[in-house]
Amino acid sequence: MFLLETIRLGLTNLRLHILRSFLTALGIILGVAAVITMVAIGEGAKQSALAQLEQLGARNLIIRSQPPPEGGSQQGGQQRGFITRYGLTRADVEVIRANFPNATAIVPVKEVGAEILRRERRKTSQAFGTTPDLMNLANLRVARGRYLTRADMEDETTVAVIGAEIAKEFFPFDDPIGAELRIDDKSFIVVGVLAPIGLAGGAGAGLVGRDLNLDMHIPMTTARSLFGDLVIRRESGSTQGRQVEVSELYIGSPSRETVINDAERLRRIMEVRRPGLIDVGIIVPYELLESARRAALTWTLVLSFIAGISLLVGGIGIMNIMLATVTERTREIGIRRAIGAKRKHIVWQFLVETGVLSAVGGVIGIFLGVGVSVGVGPLVDWLPTAPGIGRYFNADVTLPTQVTTWSIFLSFGVATATGLIFGIYPAIKAAAQDPIVALRHD
Predict the structure, then answer these.
(1) What number of helices (H) and strands (E) belong to the chain?
(2) What's the distance, CA 289 to chain centroid?
(3) In the chain, what is the straight-line distance between the N-terminal and C-terminal CA atoms, in Å?
(4) Which of 14, 24, 138, 246 is deepest in the core (most CB within 10 A)?
(5) Would you state the pLDDT for residue 328?
(6) How many of the other CB atoms lie within 10 Å of CB of 126?
(7) pLDDT at residue number 72
(8) Does residue 278 surpass a pLDDT of 90?
């Protein structure tokens, strides 16, 4: 009965001063909203980065041939006229196969050609010979048609599967399936179009070194028989030749638990065969994935701490207002004490008021924070098309967000606790007043 009456008195007092109550709770409202929004932005960025790395396959190891640095060891790269010979060899691949008998798949990728052409359109080649296993190992999805098959490998067919951006560039109004594309002077029939890959322009693209949506895949056997190992390109007014037997090699580890050990074994093997690893690079998406998770957690904690300062400011605001309220209601406190109210009753009355302010502010803050978190992504997407101001915004910029349940409960809990903690001192000060002195107060 006592508790219900105390709550009723507290709520009545707050209702009599609605504007003041709202302004008092404003710090809590903004603090909770800031925590939820900041965490949502950090979590969205984290999930976007992790998704990009996941595209490379969390259980994969990737070895990539890369030009040796100028003046590097001749063991890594050999100069022959204007032709540079470097990178993985088929002998390296056989050694790796022998040392990874439990690998789910070992898939070579071989760069071919100087240009991709169709009628008057042409583009610097990003064509590769590979095997059908690449589709599963690299998490590729076919949007239309089919991927390469074993029959294509055995028959050395001149078929190709193209990336989403290649399909857009070369077939803006036509159906690419069954159409012809050329790599240099060799013609290929398009049998499949890959679904868009989120690595374009992201962390994964930087690791692979290209936009995977611009890839063109042909059977490895066809690539070897038609193009050999030599790739000659004219860039910046000069002609450059590269002789690379295997451009990339994907190794599928049996499980995530074995990836790290397999990566160490792979590094030891390649160090023996290519001291210094000057013409090959080893990419372990799982290591990058764990590193990205740790970095994202740190970033989220920093954002939460910054937003938490708003809650602290909100708590100080509540304490200031409640201290002023104590002075304003001194006579009321004296009357209540005179008719029998104990100190604990006064303390509870003021704590109820601060608790309600904090809780209501927390609930409003939750709705505001979730609303901002959900709306900020579409808003950023819309800004480039906005009339008058659209030209000032980059259409490629996105702001993914993801509201987390833990941020909602944590911010609400901290908001309520902050209000109660900062309300204790004004409540104790109110209860400590002498009833006679309080009654005389004007």
Answers:
(1) 14, 16
(2) 10
(3) 31
(4) 24
(5) 64
(6) 18
(7) 44
(8) no
